[in-house]
Amino acid sequence: MKKGRFSEEQMVGILREADRSPVAQVAKKHGISEQTIYTWRQRFAGMSADDVKRLRLLEQENTRLKKILAERDLEIEVMKEIATKKW
Hints:
The protein is mainly α. Helix 1 (8-20) runs antiparallel to helix 2 (23-30) and helix 1 (8-20) runs antiparallel to helix 4 (49-84). The chain has helices at residues 8-20, 23-30, 34-43, 49-84. It has one domain (8-84). The chain is built from four helices and no strands.
């Protein structure tokens, strides 16, 4: 996935700024399109910067746990295969 110019915390900050000022003005100030602000608003609706950090940490942990589970399932398959072989 392409790395964006702004971190998620910065995106939330720009959204909070867009809540106080006209969207067109905020978009021009930060060099992004108005549509980008609306897209971010859909993604981060009602979140604070702390919530976004927590969400990112949870996603990373979830990815790590999925890898661990996949490795465990593979080990179980190998053990079953070894157990069913006739020596």
